[in-house]
Amino acid sequence: MSRSALLNVMVNAADKAGRGLARDFGEVENLQVSRKGPADFVSRADKRAEEVIHAELLRARPSFGFLGEEGTVEEGDGQHRWIVDPLDGTTNFLHGVPIFGVSIALERQGELVAGVVYNPVLDELYVAERGQGAFLNNRRLRVAARDDLAACLIGTGLPFMGHGNHVRALSEVQPLMSRVAGIRRAGAAAIDLAWTAAGRLDGFWEHDLKPWDMAAGIVLVREAGGFVTDADNRGEMLKTGSVVAGNDFVHRALLGNVKDVREARPRPVATQ
Ligand code: IPD
Ligand code: CA
Ligand code: CA
Fold first, then answer.
1. What is the pLDDT of residues 139-175, one digit of tens each?
2. Which residue lies with its CA nearest to atom 12 of ligand 1?
3. Whole-model pTM?
4. How far apart are CA 183 and CA 167, in angstroms?
5. How many whole angstroms separate alpha carbon 204 and alpha carbon 243?
């Protein structure tokens, strides 16, 4: 695959930050034994990663705006904006679980046009540009083609202490459990979307996300031939915080499940 200059800029930034995170991840294991755990160390690693990405992107495109989870916000030229999560999957990282990644997206005139998600431990680099397809380490990606829910592996995100709507999450998971091959909560929305693009997950849905959790992943899924909307089947994912993704069939099924729960018409739950 040939990458545009812009995508190269994004990949270089993700690679540099990712190498730092991979080194820090090695340290995290040693810190597990301390009573306080590695929380402060991880929060510093997270901020450092954002600084690295910001410096790289700013150097290459000084006029672009920036929205980073760790607090870097720049207006820029009003046309272009980087949307960055330097470390998606912080809780995994903190616990030594190697499912986390750097997520960098580019928005042009309000449209998401490029996305990079990089897991430095697995050395998996996911890239996509609008109209150019999605790739994992240079291999072209397609969303999974399954159209039988019973064979599908579905990803989601579950709310946790002090966050999100716990009742809604359980109500959405319950009717789905009996209809699918499995449900996974991998712990990093950017990676969930990348795995959906790669066909590892057949679909994914989550609520209460932030733009940086999903911006790059949305481009990946679309460019892998998948469908991505918010929970109302509109394109307002970044505004509403909800995202539903998959092939045409799975996307519709997941939307239907969310709708059924919202309208309190749960499907009958199987007894086994
Ligand atoms: C979190 C992860 C997680 C999702 C949370 C996010 P963070 O991002 O993407 O999967 O369920 O809502 O906040 O905090 O690890 O960058
Ligand atoms: Ca995140
Ligand atoms: Ca983060």
1. 999 999 999 999 999 999 999 999 999 999 999 999 9
2. 209
3. 0.95
4. 17
5. 8
